[in-house]
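Hi Prof. W.,

I finally got the PEP-CTERM protein-sorting domain-containing protein prediction working! I wasn't sure whether to trim anything, so I left the full sequence exactly as given:
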Amino acid sequence: MVGKGFFFLATMVAVTISDTSASADLVANYSIGSGLLSPNGETLFVDNAALGGGDFTPGSGFVNWVAEVDNIWSLGDSVQLTGIAIPIQSSGTGNQTTQNGTFTFSFYDIGPDNAFGLADTLVGTRTADFKGNGTTNTDEYYAIFDTPLSFTAAGNGVAVGFGNSAPIRLKINNTGSSAGVVRKLLSNGSVVSDITNPGFRMSLAGTAVAVPEPTSFAFLAIISTCVGVELLRRRLLSQG
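And this is what came out:
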């Protein structure tokens, strides 16, 4: 089930959804360097999920910002995102904490300007079931997606949106602790006005592979084939 936050998020940005997937599970006890997000040798594009700092408490499941991280791959790379870890505050009851529900992670290619904006493409979403309220409570939670999210990079980074089908509360942090991850508003792409805690401590795993350019030999072979086809076409026309 996808929460109301996701539907609002999708209408705020002019994008095309290209990929969705079934739910994984958000599991507690993630720690930086643990390897829990890279069981098959995946790259950790950023590995900084931790508690501390302040709290983002919207009183609903909607998060009005994305977490942007850049300079983690190159234009044209073949990217797969396989998992994520984030700090979740989930102690207590009511709408001022995270309640059990289904999280939606929305991934935006930040494009050739390498900055999140309204024209950036939503390359896909992944969901994960959260059941930590009343059990593990506040902790760093991670999810390995049931299916990797694949796309060809139009820029050098990604912006991640968050939502829950129930109320959500996330830990946010200062720039110095956030390792290049910055929170930007969904509405206009500007950095959030929270001077104390504009950052977000998360971990993101996957792979990024450079697509090789055609070699000169391959290019000549393609040209030769095209020339041959054209000569054959002209010969057939002359015989007709």
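Helices lie at 4-12, 216-239. Does that look reasonable to you?

Thanks,
D.
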